[in-house]
Amino acid sequence: MNTDYSICNALNYCSAGIDSSFIIYDVGCQWSINFLQRVAHSKGLSVPENMHIIPAVRKFHLSAHKLPCFARYSLNFIQGARQSMSQAHCQEVLDDHMQDSNWKKLAGISKYFN
């Protein structure tokens, strides 16, 4: 519900003239399944009329998903998805890589203490 609230507010903020929106979310494949039904049944949530919502999963996170998610939610296959990164996206990708690297180091450090 908190994610729905945040996304609805983002979609309604200065959205005049925008007819479609990419929602890139780590669990976008699961979150998007009943999103519009949840909005329709909630008094406090709304999506701009005629807004086409395109759910996607970040490239780095997608490898942890089931194979059917890849073809449907990968930015590689979604028409209109930008191939270049914004500064914020670049920072997010670098953060993901560093967190992954740090986790692998942490998980493997025990072999040095035997």
Molecular structure report:
The protein has 114 residues and is mainly alpha-helical. Helix content is 47%, strand content 9%. The protein contains six helices and two strands; from the N terminus they run αβααβααα. It has helices at 2-12, 28-31, 35-40, 59-62, 67-73, 87-108; strands at residues 20-24, 52-56. The chain has a two-stranded parallel sheet with strand order 1-2. It is elongated, with a radius of gyration of 18 Å. The N and C termini lie far apart (46 Å). The model has no long low-confidence stretch (mean pLDDT 84).
Query: What percentage of amino acids are in beta strands?
Result: 5-15%
Query: Which ranges are low-confidence, i.e. pLDDT below 50, for 5 or more consecutive residues?
Result: none
Q: Which series of helices and strands comes N to C?
A: HEHHEHHH
Described by the principal axes of the CA atoms, the overall outline is elongated
Tell me roughly what share of residues is in helical segments.
40-55%
- List how many beta strands DSSP finds: 2
Counted by DSSP, the helix tally is 6
Topology record:
Layout (H helix, E strand, L loop, with lengths): L1 H11 L7 E5 L3 H4 L3 H6 L11 E5 L2 H4 L4 H7 L13 H22 L6
Parallel strand pairs: 1-2
Give a short summary of the structure.
The chain is built from six helices and two strands, in the order H-E-H-H-E-H-H-H. It has helices at 2-12, 28-31, 35-40, 59-62, 67-73, 87-108; strands at 20-24, 52-56.
